[in-house]
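Contributing: when you submit paired examples, paste them exactly as shown. First protein:
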Amino acid sequence: MSAVVLEAAWTDRFDGDVTTEETEAGLSVGVLPGDWIAALTFARDVLSCEFFDWITGVDEMAEGFAVVAHVYSLEKRHHLLVHTRVPREDPRLPTAVGVYRGASWHERETFEMFGIVFDDHPNLVPLLLPDGFQGNPLRKDFVLASRVAKAWPGAKEPGESGHGAPSRRRVRPPGVPDDWGPHA
């Protein structure tokens, strides 16, 4: 299907409550959070996008979190990026597991890394981080404290290798307050 035909199909189905943009990866379609499941179902059933590739989040700071799904039609050979935005204060979406079973792992990862809750997910438990880990490491406001607590093993600044130019003033990693860490 051409991008023009796909755009028309989305606009007709969702009465203009969508945004569309043609990208290198195919058509990118923005939907309202309340239309998330309907949009994925429409992509699968009407636009033949039976192949589910991934779901992830993007921290857009004050604007909230974008949740993006990539699906593909093996039959008609077109890609779709379906995305929506959830508020930072209460990031929630209904689970897509009923539409694409493969979404389960991706939703668990997105929940763990960004703190986005997928309502009615059959097993929304941590997947990658160690037990007891606090925080969501892919949020932009998450402090990357490991560089402050333990020196980086590789030479990053001139002079850190033990030979060569003298060391410059040490710079803290982005997001780490000046008064934080063992050398504060």
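Second protein:
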Amino acid sequence: MKQAFLQAQQQADLVITSGGVSVGEADFTKTVLEKVGAINFWKLAIKPGKPFAFGKLDNAWFCGLPGNPVSALVTFYQLVQPVIAKLSGAIFQPAPQFKPLLVAQ
């Protein structure tokens, strides 16, 4: 896994992983990131999406999404998309939100 991180940072400005950022026995992403880079923050007070890692490798930024598919989707849209927009020089435009229309009867 360490070798994969080192190789990925040479090929990209942003490395994104899914899974392995929590505290279980098989969650190695955070441990490896601490060895080859730095963690800026880890664990958020949001549900779904609590285990999320953000940090810096030597040559790339890092976003570690949770392994749960719904949590990964939420954290990608809420946290990673703005990072991608910032790195690419674009202005982040959140997706439109639809509110239910209440009709009086």
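If you have annotations for the second protein, write them as plain sentences, like these:
The beta strands are 14-18, 37-42, 53-57, 61-65.
The helical segments are 2-11, 29-36, 69-88.
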